[in-house]
């Protein structure tokens, strides 16, 4: 049965109706990403003018339905590759009949080449350390190039499980060699500033978001909308939020400094209470410094 939006209102959608339309269509795209999802096909499916759908997506998500469908296919592709599917089969499963689509710009789509992504850390040695902090247990993992993962949880087992899933084919070594990095992060949680080298992979969009976040001064915040404007894509605030969620090195790339436009905290992968603590801690340090300078 087709989902219908009143065609008489197709050129005069208010923001709520735009949000509703995008929610319905984007859910359909996500569930059928390997199908024919041209604007014409969406128009026939939802009986809404294709240009109305296009404008609603650009206004609400900051990207076109075509770009949203491609991101869904990439997510599907990544899942298949992680599960061990051959790259060729994974590409066809995601809805494409040619490998050229992926290999033409694989770094921007996957953040690395398909073989590197499939290997999922194979051949890489990753050292890690777990320590207790005032915010719970914290894991710091690094390669020879820099820190590749920072995470917090209520138990060490949960942290190791997450790291093993993220780097399923890497050699993971619990090592005291990570102590300097761990100490720097623990000191940050007590009010010191943090600056450590990282070794992270992401899409070009994600890397642009992470770079913008890293420029937010200590003790200050910026909205998701502000980050979107900073990277030249003012309507892509929802995609910015997704990039924040994909940040593998929180604290170092301080995504806790990104909040909602209305001042609300928004989400945080390590828990909203931790986000609140980090923001309050940084503001307290800045205020104390300002008083000492008076």
Structure description:
The structure is a single chain. By secondary structure, this protein is α/β, with parallel strands linked by helices. It folds into 3 domains: 1-117, Homeodomain-like (Arc Repressor Mutant, subunit A), CATH 1.10.10.60; 125-189, Methylated DNA-protein cysteine methyltransferase domain (Double Stranded RNA Binding Domain); 204-289, Winged helix-like DNA-binding domain superfamily/Winged helix DNA-binding domain (Arc Repressor Mutant, subunit A, Orthogonal Bundle), CATH 1.10.10.10. The protein has helices spanning 15-31, 39-46, 50-60, 65-82, 87-93, 100-103, 106-110, 114-119, 156-166, 179-189, 204-214, 224-230, 237-245, 272-293, and strands spanning 125-133, 136-142, 147-153, 171-174, 222-223, 258-259. The strands form 2 sheets. The protein has a 4-stranded mixed sheet with strand order 3-2-1-4, with helices on both faces. Strands 5-6 form a two-stranded parallel sheet. Helix 1 (15-31) crosses helix 3. It starts with 14 loop residues before the first helix and ends with a helix.
């Amino acid at each position: 049965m087709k989902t219908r939006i009143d065609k008489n209102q197709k050129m005069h959608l208010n923001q709520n109706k735009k949000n509703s339309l995008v929610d319905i269509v984007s859910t359909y795209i996500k569930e059928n990403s390997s199908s024919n999802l041209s604007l014409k096909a969406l128009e026939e499916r939802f009986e809404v003018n294709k240009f109305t759908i296009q404008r609603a997506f650009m206004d609400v998500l900051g990207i076109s339905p075509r770009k949203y469908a491609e991101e869904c296919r990439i997510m599907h592709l990544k899942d298949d590759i992680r599960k061990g599917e051959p790259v060729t089969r994974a590409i066809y499963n995601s809805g494409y009949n040619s490998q050229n689509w992926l290999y033409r710009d694989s770094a921007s789509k996957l953040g690395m080449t398909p073989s590197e992504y499939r290997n999922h850390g194979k051949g890489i040695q990753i050292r890690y350390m777990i320590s207790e902090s005032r915010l719970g247990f914290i894991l710091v993992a690094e390669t020879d190039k820099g820190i590749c993962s920072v995470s917090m949880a209520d138990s060490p087992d949960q942290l190791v499980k997450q790291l093993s899933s993220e780097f399923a084919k890497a050699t993971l070594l619990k090592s005291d060699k990570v102590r300097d990095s761990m100490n720097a992060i623990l000191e940050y949680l007590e009010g010191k500033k943090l600056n450590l080298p990282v070794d992270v992979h992401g899409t070009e969009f994600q890397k642009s978001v992470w770079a913008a976040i890293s420029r937010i001064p200590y003790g200050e915040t910026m909205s998701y909308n502000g980050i979107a404007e900073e990277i030249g894509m003012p309507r892509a605030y929802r995609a910015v939020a997704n990039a924040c969620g994909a940040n593998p090195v929180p604290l170092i790339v301080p995504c806790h400094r990104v909040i909602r436009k209305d001042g609300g905290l928004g989400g945080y992968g390590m828990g909203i209470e931790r986000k609140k603590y980090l923001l309050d801690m940084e503001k307290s340090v800045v205020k104390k410094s300002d008083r000492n300078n008076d």
